Amino acid sequence: MSIQPYFVLVAASALLGAPAVVSTVPAQEGYDIATDRPVTLSLAKAAILELRGGVGSITVSRSSGPSTIVTAKRVTPGAEPRVQLVKHEKGITICSVYESGNPRKPNECLPMRKGRRFEGLKKDSPAVHFEVQLPDGVDLMADTATGNVTTTALTGNVSISVFRGNIAVIDGGSPDIRTNVMAGDTDATLGAFGGNGTRHLSFTAAGGMLKVRIPANVPIDYWISSGMSIETPFQLHKTVGEVSSGHLGPPGSTISLRIDAGSLLAKVALLPAPAQR
């Protein structure tokens, strides 16, 4: 059965950034890139790197230098799918583009989660895994149909959407984090990062375990919707129907936390984060 293209994706309105400049690829709007070798890009702070997978994982970690490095790795040899890079005014989009099998409905690589992506895609379609190193301040958008998405210590805005697979986030101080999974688990560990203003962190799941670990002694305003009982050692309050809202920690507002798992197929756990060394 083909994976349909209509599943809901997280809004990208918070990830609008400055233009990007590509350092090691030709200056054109869209073109295929080689797999199994690193591609080095230069992205300005607040620009967006958008990764659009089909089948396969996406792993993004914090870069030690100023360059963005992307490697698309094939699991099996062949030319399917193509991996395409598109430059646009908000940054760079990289997609795995599968043959749709229907000339009237070709798959395409369009920025900002637009375009037909999953026509004819199956769970056993050839996988391409993305491995990325992302510098401080560069925003990430990532979505895939089947596969896991993992981010570690990113400092730019983060938006992740997965149809079937798991999401794992280790917070690096992002001002805005949004995740959405239809069928799979979410595991997010938040950090006690300071700075000006409130950090907005939102996690949504239609199924699976949605687990969020929060730091100690940090002001957190929370809103949690859950159709099942919430696993937590914290004393939550102001429950109205399936929604719990209130404040944890000292006075103030460092984190605005929203957890949306109103489906009976999803379970929420709000736990203490491990102590930072």
Describe the structure.
The protein has no helices and 21 strands. The protein is mainly β and 277 residues long. The strands form two sheets. The chain has a twelve-stranded mixed sheet, with no helix packed on it. It has a nine-stranded mixed sheet with strand order 2-5-8-4-10-12-14-16-21, with no helix packed on it. The termini are far apart. The model is unreliable at 1-28 (pLDDT under 50).
Would you summarize the structure shown here?
The protein is mainly beta and 277 residues long. Helix content is 0%, strand content 45%.
Give a topology summary:
Blueprint: E1 30-32, E2 39-41, E3 48-52, E4 58-62, E5 68-74, E6 82-88, E7 91-97, E8 128-134, E9 139-146, E10 149-154, E11 158-164, E12 167-171, E13 176-183, E14 186-189, E15 199-205, E16 208-214, E17 220-226, E18 239-240, E19 243-248, E20 255-261, E21 266-272
Parallel strand pairs: 3-7, 3-9, 4-8, 4-10, 9-11, 10-12, 11-13, 12-14, 13-15, 14-16, 15-20, 16-21, 17-20
Antiparallel strand pairs: 1-6, 2-5, 5-8, 6-7, 17-19, 18-19
| Alpha-beta content class | mainly beta
Question: Which regions have little confidence, pLDDT < 50, spanning 5+ residues?
Answer: 1-28
In DSSP terms, counting alpha (H) and pi (I) runs of 4 or more, how many helices?
0
Q: Gap between N and C termini, in Å?
A: 48 Å
Mean pLDDT: 88
Helical fraction equals under 10%
Would you report the number of β strands? 21
What does the overall shape look like?
globular
Cα-atom radius of gyration? 19 Å
Share in β-strands? over 45%
Query: What is the succession of H and E elements?
Result: EEEEEEEEEEEEEEEEEEEEE
Walk across the major sheet and give the strand order. Answer: 1-6-7-3-9-11-13-15-20-17-19-18
